[in-house]
Amino acid sequence: MPSALINVPAKAKRGDVIEIKTLTSHIMETGYRHTATGEVVPRDIITNFACRFNGKEIFRADLFPAIAANPFFSFFTTVTESGKFEFEWIGDQGFSETASASITVE
Amino acid sequence: MEESTRREFLALAGGAAALAVTVRPTEATPATLAAAIRNVVGNDPVKTGKVKLDIPPLVENGNTVPMTVSVASPMASEDHVKSIHVFNEKNPQPNIGNFYLSPQAGRAQISTRIRLADSQKVVAIAKLSDGTFWSASVDVVVTLAACTEEVI
Q1: In terms of CATH, what superfamily is B27-144?
Q2: CA distances (Å), origin A4, targets A72, B127, B133
Q3: Which residues have CB under 8 Å from A25's CB, separation 6+?
Q4: Burial bucket for residue A49 (CB in 10 Å: 0-12, 13-18, 19+)
Q5: How much is the ipTM here?
Q6: Tens digit of pLDDT for each residue in B60-104?
Q7: Residue ranges for chain B with pLDDT beneath 50
Q8: Please, where are the H alpha helices in B23-50?
Q9: Is B58 exposed, middle or buried (0-12, 13-18, 19+ CB in 10 A)?
Q10: Would you state the pLDDT for residue B29?
Q11: Residue of A33, A59, A62 with shortest CB distance to B101
């Protein structure tokens, strides 16, 4: 089941600055909460996010427990050629998720 | 008999209150905030300006607080924003996120959603390609705290 939503324009003009929005489904458990019996709920967060365009990194983020559940990011990039955006999320307890989106530049 | 149960109840209630105080996690203090900022900027001066931190001044639910950081920069290869670091004062940890931009970004702006455990100051610091640091801070009032509530 895909758990990431990506919003990238399908088409753009050469040199345009476009906005990329991503939303991932993840609990982002902080590790600071306790159950009713006092046990600490272990931390389970996404720690790294990266976006590459045609293999070149254009945006990267380090996440901390202070990022809300279901992490949302919006950032910008200038497009000069058609290609593929690749997104990657890495987190605690072996979490790993990838997604991609293509853009046509005229 | 009745008296003793009342006493027991009071002792239990007192114990529970004491426990609630002791299990409260430690907060990031202004000192840890300063230390976290030093970790990023080293001993370089941090100037106020260029950075714009958009965050609602009054937040009802600290679990999801929309935040946008933008930096006045031409984003050219010789003059661009390298990274944006966001910190808080009173969450259990002083860091919120680090964001690394490339010169091709076109616009130095990022948005995300964050958690705030208390009414506090949020600080955004941008590192420019010439090695200077610029910052902006906003005081936020939070009515429902995040991060540390009990799981039921």
Answers
A1: SoxY domain (2.60.40.2470)
A2: 10, 29, 33
A3: A3, A4, A70
A4: buried
A5: 0.93
A6: 999 999 999 999 999 999 999 999 999 999 999 999 999 999 999
A7: 1-2, 19-24
A8: 30-41
A9: exposed
A10: 78
A11: A59
Place of tokens 């680090």: B98
Domains of chain A, by residue range, sit at 4-105
Taking alpha carbons only, the member of B130, B119, B136 closest to residue B46 is B136
Amino acid at B109: Q
Using an 8 Å CB-CB cutoff, list chain A residues near B104. Answer: 58, 77-78, 80
Average pLDDT, rounded, for chain B: 85
A28 exposed, middle or buried (CB, 10 Å; 0-12, 13-18, 19+)?
buried
Domain edges within chain B: 27-144
Contact: B105, A76; criterion CB under 8 Å: yes
Q: What pTM was estimated for this model as a whole?
A: 0.85
A6 at interface of B, judged by CB pairs closer than 8 A: no
Q: How many CB atoms lie within 10 A of CB B88?
A: 26
In this structure, the number of other CB atoms found within 10 A of the CB of residue A18 comes to 19
Classify domain A4-105 at the CATH class level.
mainly beta
B139, amino acid identity: D
